[in-house]
Amino acid sequence: MVSKIWLPVLSSFLPLLASARNLTATAFPLNTVEIPVTADPVLYFTIQNDTNTTQETATRRVSYFVYDGQAIIDGDVRFGTEEEILQAAVDPLTKRSASTKHSKRALSQSTPNRWPGGRIEYRYESELTRASRHLNFEVAIKRWEDTLPFLQFVEVSPPADVPWAPSGPRTIRAIEGTVSWSDIGGAGGEIRLGDHGPDSIGVYTHEIGHTLGLYHEHKRPDRDDYVEVVCENMWQPSDCATGSGWAAQFSKEQPEWVNWAGKYDVNSVMHYDPWAFSNGLGPVLKSKTVTELCSRCRESPTKTDAQRVCEIYWEDCHSVCGDGILSSQYEECDDGNNLNGDSCSSDCKKGPGSLCGNGVVDTGEECDHGPSGSWTCDVTCKEIVYPYCGDGKVNQISEECDDGPSGSATCTPLCKTITTPPPTNGTCFDFCDPLPPVPDRNMCDITTSCTTIDWPGARSYGEHYCACRAGYRANGVDVADMKQQYRMPWPGQVRVFVKPGLVCDTPCTEHWCAEVSEKAECF
């Protein structure tokens, strides 16, 4: 990554604003090539509209710069050495056929190699590197560990000056100037950490996101629905029509390359800052949904970032600190944020002297109904102010109806009027609740997620159901049994929804999980 400086043709290379020194667009001459792409096999199979299950050869246009012998694509992702990317490059005039053998390296866009058990081993290349980068890098590590308690970052000592290795610990190397990058996923590889001044912690947090397996948020296929790319404000050379030059940093990925399911997050720590690659004439990224993109909001993982890492490490992830769901085995509290200074700290531990959750109203508490709270007392020991949805009283400002916490045939549990009759092929599954004020409302198995129906036009808009990961269905359940599971449309993909508690780790055998019976909508 490269950071923003306030001079003509000098700008930010980062998803965060940073104080850059001595960096110009011309300092990084670009080469544009096309390289092979390996799609995610599950997503490729489910997204194709035909029955041919053989992955066709695909290529992706990338622009890269070379720093210290390494070929860097997408601003801060290490492809390999310059020799490796040139060996992998495909002549655009003589594209490879699907039958052509190709033993050179391809860009893998599938689910990256995971660190076993969520244990990330790392080592500093030298004591000098440790002395210069240790403090900020360890703070960035703690931001991820606080949000996802299952992650374990373990420093391997003593430090060793070793070359890049395809396995084993990740090597932390210092680099001059405001440039940082990382390999995607584990294990082995390297993270290069530059000196980004006061923004170093946020930059390092972003690079750790790559190490865990996350891709750039602003390259999602649905990016244009939320963010506009202003090409005239971009570093030159840039050709947005062909995705060449610096414009390659903003090219959208294909749906089948990565699991992009879920809501677009403009505040993701993996999203570029609006001034990234700006020539100083204005921001490169402009929001279509909010007044202005925040320039200094991307310094810690968001709940969305955490949930995506959780989906990659679904076998190991047991809780997300800050999602408002108390996992009593791993958290002492969860007040729905990652802030310190309140009754629940950023790592979901009770604050000093806090007795919230012991069932006794102590000094400073409005109520105390135990660690899970209740309908009238939340998990921070604050009274829930009336009126609220589910109290049986219609609040004319925010509610269309209110038939109690379970809703009714004419009113949803979210206090929205049901204006159409239920479908003839059965009713929807029980609701789950990602932020339950009542214990045991989020009943989804760890292999599923409590998912919001949030695409425009859906009749069940705003409701929450247990959904399998993209490309998976329920274990041991008849694919035609709509009382246990069914398919529903999902933007860019299809998801299988299941009865709360069911396990989903059986890969679908047909594209779009077509073997599972489809229900077009609920209500």
From TrEMBL:
Cofactor: how and how many bound: Binds 1 zinc ion per subunit.
One Pfam family hit: DUF4215
SMART domains: ZnMc (SM00235)
Single Gene Ontology BP annotation: proteolysis
This protein's UniProt keywords: Disulfide bond, Hydrolase, Metal-binding, Metalloprotease, Protease, Repeat, Signal, Zinc
Active site: 207
Residues where Zn(2+) binds: 206, 210, 216
Residues of the signal peptide: 1-20
Superkingdom of origin: Eukaryota
Necessary cofactors: Zn(2+)
Sequence ranges assigned to domain Peptidase M12A in this UniProt record: 105-318
Molecular function as annotated in GO: metalloendopeptidase activity; zinc ion binding
EC number: 3.4.24.-
Enzyme category, top tier: hydrolase
Protein name (database record): Metalloendopeptidase
Lineage: Eukaryota, Fungi, Dikarya, Ascomycota, Pezizomycotina
